[in-house]
Specification:
This protein has about 475 residues and is of the alpha/beta class. It contains 18 helices and 16 strands. Helix 1 packs parallel to helix 10, helix 1 packs parallel to helix 18 and helix 8 packs parallel to helix 13.
Length: about 475
């Protein structure tokens, strides 16, 4: 029987391990934390039963993931919950842009930009399941569905600021910029439209869903698949050198590139080590989770029914915030992402006390305290919010890195998603998962298609590992 070791038990490591185990490979996962899951862990630090997602929270890319579909996670207890409204982007003065799962309903709320929104998203979202798998691997390859991918892909190459120029209303421009800001890059750069278009198209197809019982339900289900197929997980095992690695036919690393260089050292070819060492990390996040009695008193009524909110004012403010954080400057009113997962999954609340998730985009390695800036953004669009807070937990950029070492400096997307790293991955190569050592692969979110609980980085690396095993037999 072939053997595999997976170092790191985040969603990509677990997906790789489970997919290998399903093919008859004997798999061992080595996870440094006491609980597997990486960014998909959930806990109740504020109040017993008040469930907070610790990082990854909304999963529009995961629900349609080919990897998760192959693992049949519903059989192992994973259930998706859809909010009534996907996203609201409040504006000063009481107005807001509202994103529904329905393209038609979203367009209706955008007034003069209705036709433009439908032109961008109606056809691609309707056919997303046909070609969506093509964006979940390396970009430099022959797609299986070139026509569908071309229709989607042409606008992705332009800067998000340029694509925003097709809209006339401030609501549409702000809604677009807020979603593109998930790339955590200056929005005037080429290819910054790619992530925004991907999230919006997938969301219009599947919704901005959450996992019932917290994001930990995703990793819990993958662990069950792995164990059901004979694999095992060893937690509390931090691998720091190659000497700690058990003998195996293939070894996969769900780690940041720098950690792989530290572990493998001279075993890596010089060109590979040099490329991985040049891997660049992007801006960080400062996370605050709240326990809120009675929910957030949003000014705009749709916000009280939305699973996700972007707090950053209008288009120009979003653009300025992303430019400043990338340049190392902390904005006075930062971009804040808010999650109200309990609206779709009421089991997360305790009575009338609800868990509210939030983080601000901050400069890489930010050492300040952004708590008051985050609360200020809530108060801007929900006056009286502060009085409803009955508890909060704070996780700074440094604490995010301690929680998950893959989040170097608090960078939760595992690397700056600029042109080079978005196209090639951690180094300039057509084989972004290979490490130049036979049987060794990188499978973290540093590789294509990047961050999220979709497991596709792990799935793509496991495919490379299986091809290696087939050639070796």
């Amino acid at each position: 029987m072939s053997t595999a070791v997976v170092v790191g038990g985040g969603p990509n490591g677990l997906a790789a391990a489970a997919l290998l185990a399903r093919q008859g490979v004997q798999v061992t996962v080595l996870e440094a934390a006491e609980v597997a899951g990486g960014g998909t862990r959930s806990s109740d630090p504020l109040m017993p039963g008040l469930l907070q997602d610790e990082c990854s929270a909304v999963h529009m890319m995961a629900v349609g993931s080919p990897a998760l579909a192959e693992l049949d996670l519903a059989r192992y207890g994973l259930r998706w919950c859809v909010p009534e409204i996907d996203l609201v982007h409040p504006l000063d003065g009481g107005d807001a842009a509202v994103l529904h799962r329905s393209v038609e309903a979203t367009a209706e709320g955008l007034g003069a930009d209705a036709k433009r929104w439908k032109l961008l998203f109606e056809r691609p979202s309707a056919t997303f399941d046909d070609w969506g798998g093509d964006i979940m691997g390396p970009l430099l390859r022959v797609p299986k569905h070139p026509l569908g991918l071309t229709r989607f892909g042409l606008p992705t190459v332009v800067p998000a600021t340029l694509l925003a120029s097709v809209f006339n209303t401030e609501g549409a421009r702000a809604l677009w910029a807020g979603t593109a800001a998930h790339a955590m890059q200056p929005l005037h750069r080429p290819l910054t439209s790619a992530i925004g278009l991907g999230l919006l198209t997938a969301g219009h197809r599947h919704g901005w869903v959450v996992a019932e019982g917290g994001s930990r339900s995703i990793s819990d289900a993958m662990v069950k698949v792995l164990i059901d197929h004979g694999g095992k997980i060893e937690t509390g095992v931090r691998v720091t050198s190659a000497e700690q690695l058990p003998a195996a036919d293939v070894t996969l690393f769900d780690l940041a590139p720098g950690a792989v260089v530290e572990i493998l050292g001279d075993r890596l070819p010089r060109r590979v080590a040099k490329g991985l060492s040049r891997f660049r990390h992007g801006p960080s996040v400062f996370k605050v989770d709240f326990a809120v009695r009675g929910g957030v008193p949003w000014t705009h009524p749709a916000a009280s029914r939305a699973g996700t909110l972007h707090l950053s004012g209008g288009f120009a403010e979003v653009v300025a915030n992303e430019r400043d954080t990338s340049a190392g400057r902390m904005p006075e009113r930062p971009f804040v992402l808010v999650g109200q997962q309990y609206l779709a999954d009421p089991s997360r609340s305790v009575g009338d006390v609800h868990p509210v998730y939030s983080y601000a985009h901050v400069p890489h390695g930010y050492t300040g305290d952004a708590t008051e800036a985050i609360i200020g953004q809530f108060e801007r669009f929900a006056p009286g919010f502060r009085e409803r807070i009955v508890g909060k937990t704070v996780r700074s950029a440094a604490q995010m890195a301690a929680y998950n070492p893959n989040y170097v400096g608090g960078d939760i997307v595992t690397g700056a998603k600029d042109i080079r790293q978005l196209v090639f991955g951690p180094r300039a190569t057509l084989s972004p998962y290979g490490l130049g050592v036979p049987g060794m692969y990188l499978c973290s979110a540093a590789t294509p298609p990047g961050p999220g609980a979709h497991g596709m980085c792990g799935a793509n690396a496991s495919s490379s590992a299986l091809r290696h095993l087939s050639r070796a037999t």
